[in-house]
Amino acid sequence: SHPPQYVVVLPPYRPAGRRFFRASTRRRLCWFACVVLFLAAASAAYVFWPSDPELLISDLKLDRLGFHTKPVISLDVTLDLTIQVRNRDFYSIEYDSLVVAIEYRGRRLGFATSGGGRIRARGSSYVNATLDLDAVEMLTDAVSLLEDFARGAIEFDTVSEIHGKIALFALQLPVKAKVSCEATVNTKSQIVTSQNCYPEV
């Protein structure tokens, strides 16, 4: 008689190295996809997250400059400004007011406030403000003011600031912007001869 014959069926051979390589590749692809999604979300948040508006002085004009010595040394100033408010966001801005102040040698002489308004998304608006100051006493800066008038040039600082809010879903996010200008005025011609403006952070 013939001896019994046995057939052994083995599963297909898969090298362990290939299995490890495939698992490692899947993990790398998963990490890469997570990094891409994170960068995309961060970029979207950076682009669409509200930012403060931008203020630019488009026009600055001196209408009146007066100097008095009696009964005390005082100053009359009328200054007209046109300020461009630029909205860089994808949401409209509702601003409450625009405040413009004028300073001489670090001392605030006065300020003017304009009404509120609305700036559309990715748009800009022009706001006019007039500073009208009469007989502002210059007791502490009298000597400096006399010297400036004697040399024919006086330097003023203007500070413009706007406050508002952005409606983002159910949130009311506050926004503000501020710009300062150094303006030199010819005391004889009463013309602004130079100005240097820069935003304040």
Question: How would you describe what is shown here?
Answer:
By secondary structure, the protein is an alpha+beta fold. The chain has a single domain (52-199), classed as Sandwich (Immunoglobulin-like), CATH 2.60.40. Helices cover 21% and strands 52% of the residues. It contains two helices and nine strands, in the order H-E-E-E-E-E-E-H-E-E-E. It has helices at 16-48, 142-151; strands at residues 54-68, 74-86, 93-104, 107-114, 117-119, 124-137, 153-168, 171-186, 192-199. The strands form two sheets. Strands 3, 4, 5, 7, 8 and 9 form a six-stranded antiparallel β-sheet that branches. A three-stranded antiparallel β-sheet has the order 1-2-6, with no helix packed on it. The longest helix has 33 residues, at 16-48. The model is unreliable at 42-48 (pLDDT under 50).
Notable characteristics:
Immunoglobulin-like; three-stranded antiparallel β-sheet; 21% helix; elongated; membrane
Radius of gyration: 34 Å
Extended strand count: 9
Structural class by SSE content: alpha+beta
- What is the fold named in CATH at topology level? Immunoglobulin-like
